[in-house]
Amino acid sequence: MNPYKKQHHRKISIIKLHSKLIIKVFIPFTLLIMLVSFCQANSTFSDNFCAMMQLPVDSPDTSAPDTIAVDTLKIDQPKDKPLKARVIHNSADSSYFDLIEQKMYLYGEAMVEYEDNILKANYIEFSFKDKIVFAEVGKDSLGNEIGKPDFTGDGQNFKGSSINYNFETKKGVIKDVVTQEGDGTLHGKTIKKHANDHVHVKDGKYTTCEHEDPHFYLKLSKAIVIPNDKIVSGPGYLVVGDVPTPLFIPFGYFPNKRGKAAGILIPEPGESPTLGFYLINGGYYVPIGDKVDMQIRGDFYSRGSWGLKNFVRYKNIYRYNGDVNVSYSILKQSDPEFPDFSLIKNFFVNWRHNQDPKARPNSKFSANVNVGTNTNFRNNFNSTTNNYLTNTFQSNIAYTKTWAGKPYSLSTNLRHSQNTQSRIVNATLPEMAFNVSRIYPLAFLRQENVGSKKWFEKIGLSYNTNFKNEISVADTLINMNNLSNLTGKFRNGLKHSATANTSMKFLKYFTLTPAFNYTERWYVQTIEKNWDDELQTTITDTLSGFKTARDYSISANVTTKYYMTYQYKKGPIQAIRHVFTPNVGFTYIPDLSSEVEYTINDTTLDAPTVGTYSPFDQGIYGKPNANEAGLVTFNFINNLEMKVRTPKDTASASKKVRLIENFNFSSSYDLFKDSLNWSNVRLNARTKLFKNLNLNYTGTLNPYAFDSLGNNINTSMWKQSKKLGTITNSTFALGWMLKSPGSGTKESNKGTQEELDAINANPNAYVDFNIPWSLNINYNIRLNRSFANGIDTTTITQSLTFNGDFNLTKYWKIGVNSGYDFETKDLTYTQVNIYRDLHCWELRFNWIPFGFRKSYGVTLSVKSPLLQDLKLQRKRAWYDLQ
After folding, report:
1. Given 3-state DSSP classes, what are the helix, strand and coil percentages for the chain, each rounded to the nearest 5?
2. What is the pTM of this model?
C-alpha cells in the first residue's frame, strides 16, 4: 500500500475520532458548565430553575416550596370579609343552598362566574364563608365522563378532573389538569396555582400535540410555569406512543412568551462522508422591535467547509413588507495534498420588497433582487431543487409615480440578468420612462358639444421619453475592488416618441385608424470607421459628442368583424359560429438613412471598394431606417365555436364549446422593393380541449422558392411546386392539467393571508391533502430548418416534463417530478417526495435517484415550530454520492 495514502487514511481517522469526541463529549460538557455558570450568575433564573435542578447557587432559594399536597386554600383568610363582586351561577339540573354552612351546590352543566373568573363543570360546590369553589367531573349511566371542570381566569385556562379555587386569594389546586401554555400543552397529575399566577406542576407532561391522549410528550417530574414568560422543568424524558425512549434531558426550558422572543436556533448534527461531521442551520434568532426580526445561521463541517446566512424579515402593516437573505459559503472537497482538491467560494443576495397598495396610491416601490456567484446553487450544499434548475438570475428594483387627475406617469427600473451557462451579466442602471397618455387637444374640440363627435375631435396625442444605460459583460470581468474598468463598456441614450392617431367609422361596419409616429434618438457617443492600410483591417473608433437621429412613419389600418353561423336542425350539434376579424393596413417609412461611406484598400482585391456604416450602429435605441418602405400589412384572426344540445332535464338547452380559441396569420407586402416583396407568414393558434388540455402552435412560413444555397429567389413556392411555402420553424406545445374531481374548491383553499403568504414563499414545505391526486404534463416539439453551405438541415427537438402527486392513503402522499430527454433517451432531473402525516409529527422522504444531484433525505420531526428541533434526520447529499 502506498505509505502516502496510508498516512492520509490515518489522518482522516484521527479527524473522525476528534469530531466524534467534540460532538458527543466536549459539546455536552461545555453546555453543562455554561448552565452552572449561568445559574450562579442569574439569581432570578436560579430561583425557579436551578433550585429545581438542585444546583448550587450563591443566594439561598427563596422560592415557594412544593406544597401541592398541602391544603393552604383556607390559611389566613378573613371569614367575615364580603366578596367584592356578585357571584353569578347557573345549572341545568338542580341547585341547593345550605344556609347554615353557607354553601351552594349546583348539579348538571353548572356554571359559576365571579369577576373575570368563570368555572364550568358537571358539579360545583361554592362556600360563601371561605370563598372557595370546588368542581369535579361527573359520569353518565354508561360510566363516561361528562362535564369536565373548565376554569378560565387571570388570563389562564385549566381543565381537570377536579378543581379547588379560592376567589379571594386566587390560589387553587387542580387534579389531572390540561392547560394551554403558548404553542404547547401542559398535562399535570396535580398542579397548584399561586396568587402571583405562578403554577407548580407535579408529575407533568409537556407536548405540542392537541390530542387528548398525546402521541408524544416530554415526561417531567416537576415544573414551574410563569405565565407569558417561561416554563422551567426538572429532569425528563421523551415518550412516543406511550413508550418511553432513552432520550433524557437533565432540565427543560420552554419559552412561554406571547409574540417574538430571542433564542438559540438548534443546529442539525450529522455526518457526510465527503465533508465530515457537521452542524448545520444552527444560529440565533433576534427580534428587532415589532416590525423586524433576524436569523443568523451557520453551517460547519469538520473538514473545513462552512457557510453563514443572515435572514432579515420586516413588515410595517399597511405600508410595506419584505426580506433580505445574504449567504456566504466555502466548500472544500478532498485535501490540499491531493490533485482532486477543490475550494469554491460562493455568495448570494436575495431581497424582496413589496409596498401595500393603500400606503401611497400614486407611487409604488418594489424590489426583487437575486445576485451572486454563478456557481452558488450548483455547489452550495444547502441549495434547493428550484434554485439548482434555474439557469438565469434576474433582478429588478422599480419605482413608479402617477399624478392624480393628470395623464403623466414616471417609472424607474434597475435591472440585472445573469446567465449561469454563458456567464454573461446584463445590467441596466437605470432605465427611466416618462409617459403622457393619450390626450385630446382643445384646438380640435368644439365649443358647443352637440351631437356625436366628429372624427377630428377624436384625434389623440401621446408622448413618452425613455432613457437607458446598460452594460453586458462576462462575470469574470467584474471586480468589486476596481469597477472603473467597466465605465467604457456602458451604452446609453435617450429616445423621444410621439404619436397622433384617431379612429372613425365608415360604410357602417368598418373602422379606420390613421396614425402618425415620430421618433428621435439622442446619443452622446457615436462610431467612426476607417480603413487601416498597414493593418489591412477596418478600425472602429468611439467618438464623444451629442448627436441626434430621427425618423417617422405614417400608417392607416382598417378592421371589421364577420360573423358566420351554420345552423343544424338535427343531431347533437345545434350551431357552429365562425368569427373572422381581418385587419388590413398601410405603413409608409421614408428613407432617412444615416449611412456613411468609406474606402477599403484591400490589397487582395484588384481595386478599392466602398464600405458603409452608420454612426449609430451601436446605439442602444438603434438607427433610422435605411430603406424606404411602403408596407401593406395583413392580419387575419379566426375564432371557431360550437353550440351543442344538452339533455332536456338540464337548466339550459345548449352549451358552448370552443373549437379554436384563436388562429391568426399575418404577413406584409413592400411596394417599394424590386423583388422579394412578401415577408414571411407568421402563424399562431391556440385552443383548449376537454377543459384541461391546452394546445399552442407558432410557426413561420417562407412563401418563396430557394436555390441550392438556400437563398430565396423571386419565385413563389406555389408557382414552382404548388405548395403554399416552406415551414422554416414551428413550435407545438401541449399542456395537460388533471386533478381529481372536486379539487380546488373554496373549502380546500381557506386560510389566513399570513398563512397563504407563508405557503407561497415556501411551497415545498406544505402538503395539501384536499387534492387526492393531480398530474401536469407539458410536451414541446420544435422544428427548425436552416441552410448552410448549400446543405438543407432540419432539426427536431422535443421535451417532455411531468409532475404530479397522489394520496396513497388518508395520510400518505407521494409526489414525482421528472421528464424525458428524447436525444439521450433517458429521464431528466427526477425527484421523488413521500410525505406521511402523523398528526403532531410528520415524515418526509426526498429522493433524487440519479444524475449530478443524486441524493436522499429522511426527516421525522414535530410539526410545531416550538419543538421543531425535536427530529430524527438521515440524509446523503449530492456531493457524497458522486
Report:
1. 10, 55, 35
2. 0.69
Least confident range from 2-11, 631-640, 664-673: namely 2-11
Which range among 309-323, 644-658, 792-806 shows the weakest confidence by mean pLDDT?
Answer: 644-658
Query: CB neighbours (10 Å) of residue 245?
Result: 12
Burial of residue 795 (number of CB atoms within 10 Å: 0-12, 13-18, 19+): exposed
Residues 770-812: tens digit of each pLDDT: 778 889 999 999 999 887 666 778 889 898 999 998 888 888 8
Amino acid at site 408 = Y
**Does residue 129 contact residue 102 with C-beta atoms inside 8 Å?**
yes
Paired with 188 in beta bridges are 177, 204
pLDDT digits (tens, 9 = 90+) for 165-184: 888 888 888 888 888 776 77
**b/e code 161-200 from CB counts within 10 Å (16+ = b):** bbbbbbbbbebbbbbbbbbebbebbbbbbbbbbbeeebbb
Single-letter amino acid code for the residue at 291: K
Q: Which amino acid, residue 250?
A: P
Query: Higher pLDDT residue, 872 or 786?
Result: 786
Answer whether 250's CB lies under 8 Å from 28's CB.
no
Looking at residue 445, what DSSP letter applies?
Answer: S
One-letter amino acid identity for 269?
A: P
The mean-pLDDT minimum among 58-72, 185-199, 354-368 falls in 58-72
C-alpha cell belonging to residue 66: 412544593
How many other CB atoms are there within 10 angstroms of residue 701's CB atom?
19
The beta-strand segments (E) located in 673-755 are 681-689, 693-702, 704-706, 712-716, 726-739
Q: Scanning the structure block, which residue is given the C-alpha cell 421614408? A: 590
What is the pairing mode between strands 172-181 and 826-827? unpaired
Written as nine digits, the cell of 358 is 393603500
Contact indicator for 660, 685 with CB cutoff of 8 Å: yes
Torsional sign, CA 467, 472, 475, 476: negative
- What are the cell numbers at 671? 411596394
609 in helix, strand or coil? Answer: strand
